[in-house]
Amino acid sequence: MTDPEIYGIMVEFETAEELIHAARAAMAAGYTRVETYTPMPVHGLAEIIGVHRTPVARIVFTGGLLGCIGGYALQYYMTVISYAHNVGGRPVHSWPAYIPVTFETTVLCAALSAVFGMLALNRLPMPYHPAFNVPAFKRATQDRFFLCIRAKDPQFDISGTRSFLQKQGGLEVANVEA
Amino acid sequence: MTDEEIVLAPKQTYETATRDIGEIALTGKFRFGWVAGFAVSFLITMALFTAIGYLFLRGIGIWGVNVPIAWGLAIVNFVWWIGIGHAGTLISAILLLLKQDWRTSINRFAEAMTLFAVACAGMFPILHLGRPWLFYWLLPYPNTMYLWPQPRSPLIWDVFAVSTYLTVSLLFWYVGLVPDCAALRDRAKNRAQQIIYGVLALGWRGSTEHWARYEMAYLLLAGLATPLVVSVHTVVSFDFSIAILPGWHTTIFPPYFVAGAIYSGFAMVLSLMIPLRRYYHLYDFVTSRHLQAMAKVMLATGLIVAYGYAMETFMSWYSANTFEEFMMKNRMTGPYWPFYWSLIACNIVIPQSLWSARVRNNPVTLWFVAMVVNVGMWLERFVIVITSLHRDFLPSSWDMYWPTFWDWTTFTGTIGFFLACLFLFVRGLPIISIFEVRELVHERIRPPVGSAHD
Predict the structure, then answer these.
(1) What residue numbers bound the domain in which A152 lies?
(2) Residue-range definition of the domain harbouring residue B423
């Protein structure tokens, strides 16, 4: 926490392999708040910078389970409790007929929780982020790969980190204004 | 790698793929072909609104429906449209789970097609209600009438299946679009584009942590959409098979409807993708490999459909049920015989030409076969709905059904609406998933050492 005006220092690469290499080097050098930005998912990178598990699957499972119970309970309430109606002498609680709707509500709630859960975990929508202050960062969504060491990192030191990143063989090193 | 295996032209890089696909949406120029096509489809959409307006004014008496044929063109079109939608989900979800790399350049477009096809499909049952403005009575909500919809009826299953399908298709499509909208935001040529794509991109910045969650969510969505797509057409087929009517009351309906849906959906993707690829010179992204693969899926599902027809005919004899037997005879030789035999020609006979590699390799012949299947699948639904209803058990209740001018206007109108939506989509959003194409580029250029990490 040397400079509160700075979000971190960012370096740009041309290929995913160079970025992977630099990310390994940064972690090996003891940095812990390392962020990487890529124009498409790069497999293996998340594990290198210490992102191991995401709770997305659990959120989706919970959503699906709630949808399943909710859908069945809705039909049970409609046909057994609120308006029990004898159709051709069949049981009022005719569960096989409830399966299609239960299935659909399960899928619906699971899908909604997948999307909104993912967005919430990612803190999106986020209209402003310091990373966008770096002019070259425009290409992070197109064809360039970026690595940023956060100023929050206990090891962060403006000149030391800068010279460390300059040694990684990237294109340009830039300070990210907060 | 031979020519037929290429899913992406070797000259494409991260930068060129982003530029080539992004530019179609970002350019300030409007080409004549697009403007003319949009204008025509927009006019047809206006005809749809006119037909709907007149329907609201006069009721469904303006259609050709009667008793016993209460389900006219509205239900034929509903099943046809929703079937078309299924190819989009199949391509984007099932082929993702099967790790088919040829899905990448066609999934976005196919998903958009799904969305608009389901929107067209959804209109018909509502318009057919008689009092369409009371459509919300189909939803379970506490009301002063103290009444609930009947969850033991397949028609209510339909409400849940179709609305879930529309919602999940929309989510799947939009989630795929987020990183591409970010790319367009960062390439925007003016302030308006920057704001519009910026809002759609939700502030996406390609952080690795985000990608990890994104990929997990996307994979789970695909896993959820796969059983969903099968369930939707199964539920649609229950609308028929749960009734006791001869020609509807068969257990083969669910699998045969699902196969038919995929069949017609792939036919529609081909009939739209072939002209689109030519117009925007997308040969680098939509290669002959894609067309070949889609033609083969069409051939395979077409054979399942042919098996379904054969089984229907066989069972009507084997069941030894007079009414079933009569229904089949009536289909083949009754007043609607031209529909039945054109359906056999369109869905079974002509598509067999796809066995020939020459037919599959030539976009013109392939497009022609796809159009024939589109027509054939519409005829299939016509035959199922109309011939079963028009002569059921009691000869005293038999009648004929002929679509009226308003039936045809509504149907043509939805085609115009569908095309108008597609024209807007093609011009405003990336028609090919750019970030997934970048993954293909990455797989190609990645040195062998790097691949050991996977």
Answers:
(1) 6-52+128-177
(2) 3-453
Specify burial of residue A27 (Cβ count, 10 A radius: 0-12, 13-18, 19+): middle
Task: Examine residue A155 and state whether it is found in any structural domain, yes or no.
Answer: yes
Which uninterrupted H or E stretch holds A12?
strand A6-13
Please report, for residues B119, B155, B384, B397, B408, the alpha-carbon distance to residue B60 in angstroms, rounded to integers and kept in the order given.
20, 19, 21, 20, 13
Which residues in chain B have their CB less than 8 angstroms from residue A17's CB? 446-447, 449-450
Model confidence at A172, pLDDT cuts 50, 70, 90, reads confident
- Cross-chain Cβ contact B167/A108 below 8 Å: yes
Could you tell me if A133 and A100 lie in one domain? no
- Residues of chain B whose pLDDT is less than 50? 1, 449-454
- B319: closest CA of chain A, how far (Å): 26
Q: Is A46 on the interface with B (CB under 8 A)?
A: yes
User: Considering the domain boundaries, does residue A1 fall inside one?
Assistant: no
Contact state of B216 with A87 under an 8 Å Cβ cutoff:
no
pLDDT at B447: 56
CATH of residue B351: 1.20.1630.10
ipTM of the complex: 0.92
